[in-house]
Structures are given as structure tokens and as C-alpha cells.
Amino acid sequence: MRGMVYHGPGKTNWEEKPRPPLQESTDAIVRITTSTICGSDLHILKGDVPGVVDGRVLGHEAVGMVEEIGAGVQTFKKGDKVLVSCITSCAKCDFCRKSMYSHCRHGGWILGHLIDGTQAEYARIPYADTSLYSLPQDADEEALVMLSDIFPTGFECGVLNGKVQPGDSVAIVGSGPVGLAALLTAQLFSPAQLILIDQDENRLRVAKSLGATHTINSAGGKTAEIVLALTGGQGADAVIEAIGLPATFELCQALVAPGGRIANIGVHGKSATLHLETLWSRNITLTTQLVDTATTPLLLKAVLSGRIDPKKLVTHRFALSDAGKAYDTFSNAAREKALKVILSTR
Ligand SMILES: [Zn+2]
Ligand SMILES: [Zn+2]
Predict the structure, then answer these.
(1) How many domains are there within the chain?
(2) Quick one: 145 and 207 in the same domain?
(3) Same domain (yes/no): 168, 228
(4) Are residues 268 and 319 in the same domain?
């Protein structure tokens, strides 16, 4: 088979690899039909994720067909259409029993990280019964592949941790794919204001078309003043950080209302200042989380019923074998106006 293989910082190649065999009785082999590239794949390419070794097949998001199952797999059979979760869960360890699948003792984020991933013609999925989700045969793969990672991430780490409620003011810092997934899923709770903040005018336009009530280009340097003016001087009830820089994390602290919540989603590579000198008396809550994908069944129902449409984030489509071109496009997201790029075998 062929796959997108990592060969050290800045180096990837679409190349021949042996098709992964079953290793454990709980494994399934999935023939990948749709995959996509994540911001964390770009972090890997920069060399920021030391667990990824030379020779690793990248990718942790996919829809595909079950090709082969181990003797212990009970839920799936050959030919089933499935969603691959970015988080592998044994469902039995202490963390899994607390629904913290991202910290699974035997899984967590391993695909395209510690084991070969999904930007390939075939992938081995450990603990298939609890790491794959059944899809209808006629499912819209481009919409559903967004549920491997970015929709559970935006929803769990942003919207649920931010405790978005009807009538709330919500500020989302970052209008990339994950910030936009938070924007779309926040609307399930009918907030009064959805304020999207970014420096990319195109992404702000997209946010507006997806339901943002206000957009702010933070390059102007007046973001906090504008948010305070929009919220009667109070600030936002829920502030969602979807970028992962010290400056954006500090901005969130300037936007939060008394009693409000700051929900961090961003992957931070550097320390950032927590302004306790202003926040200690403001009754705020700060949350951090690696996505557990515990809400994937709920999100599947919301997509299949038409309540949310993740396909709106798809901007580019490539054949899986053109993964190299897709990486080039996604790495230049601002210039290419790219949000999510689809890799497909059809
Ligand atoms: Zn991802
Ligand atoms: Zn586990």
C-alpha cells in the first residue's frame, strides 16, 4: 500500500509501505476512503512532536471500510463503513472508565503519532470496538470525517468546558477549523452573541457566514475594548481560546466577564502569563483538555439529522495519492484560503 510517511522535520513522502497486519485480536484493518490533514500534522512536520519517529505514517482523521477484523472484535465486520476517532480507547482502564479516553493507558492520541496513521490506503486501528463508530453506507464522508477530531475538539474543549448557555455572550479567539467547529456547535445552545476574533479577514468572513454575530480583526489592537462595548461593559460569559499562543491566551483573560469561563483548546508550545492580579476576584473558571471524543455519538446524530453541517469547513479536495500537494496547500492556509483539505480515494 501507499501512505504519507514522515522522515524528520520538513520531510514527508507519499511512498510504498507494507500493508499493516492485525497485531492484536481487538484490532481492525480499515481501508481508508476519506482522510484530512490537521494542524497537529503541521506541528509534527515542524519537529514539535518528538514521539513521531522517521518512517511513521501520518494522520489521525478518517472514514473508511472495515477490511479485516481480529477474532475479538464484536461490533464490526468486513465491509462496514466506519468513522476513525483520533483518540484510541481501550474502554477498560481507569481513565477510560472516567470517559477520559485521551488519557487511555493503552491508547489516547496514538494514530499518526506513536503508531502508523490514516493518511494511507490502509490503517490498523487498535481497540476497534471502542475506537471506531458505525456510519450509514450512504453517509457523506466529507462531512463525517470532521468528526474524527475537530468537531469533538471544538465542542468538548471549547463549548462544553465553556458551559455555553442560552443567551450567553461567547467570544472565540481563533477562526481556524477548530474555532469554527466551536462556532457551529456553540449554536446548539443558542447563545445571544458569538464574537469571532482573528487576524485573517477571509476566516472572519467565513465565520460570519457560519453564524458569528460579530467579528473582530485583532490586528487593530482594540479587541478588548470592542468586546466590552458589545457586552455592556461586562465581557464575554464564555471565552474560547483556539489558537495556542501566549498573546491569544492573555487576550482571553481581558475578554472574560465576572463569573465567566475561559476554555482553552489551543496547543501551547510556550508558557503564557496568567493575570491573577486582575482575575483573582472575578470568579472565573479556566479549563484545559485534550479532546476525549466522548461526544462523538452525540455529534454523529447532530450531523446525520442535519442539525450541524461540518462540510462547510471543506475548502479543498485532493486524491489521497496527492497528499503532498494537499500538505503544500494546508501549510499555506492563509494564502490558499484553506480550512479543511479532503484527501479521498474516490
Ligand atoms: Zn487533529
Ligand atoms: Zn483505556
Answers:
(1) 2
(2) no
(3) yes
(4) no
Q: What one-character-per-residue DSSP string does 26-81 give?
A: T-EEEEEEEEE--HHHHHHHTT--TTPPTTPBP---EEEEEEEE-TT--S--TT-E
User: Residue 60 C-alpha to ligand 1 middle, in angstroms?
Assistant: 6
Structure confidence at residue 269 (pLDDT): 86
User: How many Å lie between the centroid of ligand 2 and the Cα of residue 128?
Assistant: 12
Q: What pLDDT, in 10s, does the model give residues 83-129?
A: 999 999 999 999 999 999 999 999 999 999 999 999 999 999 999 99
**How much is the pTM?**
0.97
Q: How many angstroms does the Cα of residue 90 sit away from the middle of ligand 2? A: 4
Query: Across the chain, where does the E strand assignment appear?
Result: 2-6, 12-16, 28-36, 62-69, 81-84, 122-125, 132-134, 169-173, 193-198, 214-217, 236-241, 256-264, 285-288, 314-319, 340-344
Residue 48 has pLDDT above 90, yes or no: no
Residues 11 and 125 in one domain: yes
Q: Are residues 130 and 166 in the same domain?
A: no
139 and 157 fall within a common domain: no
Ligand lying nearest the CA atom of residue 93: 2
Ligand 1: distance of its center to the CA of 38 in Å?
4
CA of 113 to the centre of ligand 2 (A): 17
**Mean pLDDT, residues 2-15 taken together:** 97
Range of the domain at 208: 153-288
What is the domain-level CATH number for residue 87? 3.90.180.10
115 lies in the same domain as 163: no
Rounded mean pLDDT of 323-340?
Answer: 96
How close is the Cα of 178 to the center of ligand 1, in Å?
9
Asked if residue 306 and residue 237 are part of one domain, the reply reads no
Cell of 91: 474502554
